[in-house]
Amino acid sequence: MSADLPIRKIIHVDMDAFYASVEQLDHPELKGKPIAVGGGGKRGVVSAASYEARKFGVKSAMAGNLAAKLCPELIFVKPRFERYGEISKKIRKIFFEYTDLVEPLSLDEAYLDVTENKKGNPSASLIAQDIRERIFTELGLTASAGISINKFIAKVASDYNKPNGQKTVNPEEVLPFLEELDIRKFYGVGKVTAEKMYQLGIFTGADLKQKSLEFLEEHFGKSGAYYYEVVRGIHRSEVKPNRIRKSLAAERTFSENLSSEVFMLEKLDHIADEVARRLAKSKVSGKTVTLKIKYSDFTLQTRSKTLPYFISEKALILETTKELLYQEKLQNSVRLLGISLSNLNTETEKKPEAKTVSVQLKFEF
Fold first, then answer.
1. Between the CA of residue 69 and those of 20, 73, 140, what are the distances in Å?
2. Side by side, which strands form the sheet with 46-49?
């Protein structure tokens, strides 16, 4: 680790099978049973799976029909995102009782910087334990946590003792921990990258650490420097509260493929309505409209147009989307359409600075 980097106390809290656990909480008859949130119907995709379903190999982003084959007893449940959002707000309220440096990644996970905290507790491990106990006592749900000196290691550690567990990687344990780590466990190393690393003889953190910066940049481009640093315990990203949204989108997957632009315009009208509603709720507007098209053969195409002014009204979003739809001939029948607005007016706002404290290597975790 670099001696000039401040040692922080970072907690990554990750709810256990969040959507599925909420459904089991609200519907006691589903407790102990394999359930999948979403995934119903011929074209459905699993949003989340209970641990009972995961034992059969069911996981998020899996096609519903495949999930049903793997687990014949699987129960499909319609997602209720408003309910998940309601509980997520209660969880975050607990977080903010310990620190204002909270960076949500999604409804079910967040980073907390507790280097200095509202409880005056020097132990990040005890804070994490307290937070998990409160989530269970007050909301009836379990969470796992990872605790370490930076966001990268904390996130990797939170997956170690799932479900309903936590792992602390103390400053002096960071390098041995990373060297023994399977390369697939490194956050930011996906399936394709892992396969490429295997071909290069990289299977663990120790193997990765042996490669030079030049070697990693040659084979992995800009990501090479990231891999070079994280395996040495260096991750410079601070916990950023109030993360500034870069884009806002909505999309729909259809039960039957669409081959006529007329039918697509009808669907895009509903999608544009949803995007406009979300923009109004977030009180933002944007300049760049992007149309996302996924064809029946699963190839993906995006078409974008940047306007000279900010928009948020449905009529303007839909008008621009129509232009993009007719911009060129469709390559095939369509199974998914999406609209996103980026280049938002939030991007010009000043980002809040997270307070950091430089401390000695040996301190209570």
1. 19, 9, 31
2. 46-49, 35-38, 75-77
Supply the pTM of this predicted model.
0.73
Q: Are 110 and 18 in contact (CB under 8 A)?
A: no
Cβ neighbors of 154 (< 8 A, separation 6 or more) are: 10, 11, 12, 111, 146, 147, 148, 169
Specify whether 29 is catalytic: no
Return the structure tokens found at 122. 């020097």
DSSP labels, 283-310:
T--EEEEEEEEEETT--EEEEEEEEEEE
Going by their DSSP bridges, the two strands 75-77 and 35-38 should be labelled as parallel
Phi/psi at 214 (5° precision): -65, -40
Q: For residue 365, tell me if it sits in a domain.
A: no
CA 63/CA 97 separation, integer angstroms: 39
pLDDT in tens, 222-274: 899 999 999 999 998 999 887 667 889 999 988 889 998 889 999 999 999 99
What the block records as the tokens of 99 is 């620190």
Structural domain count of the chain: 4
Q: Is residue 203 part of a domain?
A: yes
The total of other beta-carbon atoms located within 10 Å of residue 3's CB is 5
Q: Are 149 and 171 in contact (CB under 8 A)?
A: yes
Catalytic member of 23, 52, 103, 109: 109
Point out which residues pair with 36 in neighbouring strands: 49, 76
- Cα(230)–Cα(215) distance, integer angstroms: 16
Residues 67 and 90 in one domain: no
- pLDDT tens for residues 81-94? 889 999 999 999 99
- Asked, for residue 242, whether it belongs to a domain, the answer is no
CATH for 339: 3.30.1490.100
Residue 321, domain member (yes or no): yes
**In this predicted model, what pLDDT tens digit does every residue of 101-112 receive, in sequence order?**
999 988 999 999
Residue ranges for the known binding site for Mg(2+) are 14, 108
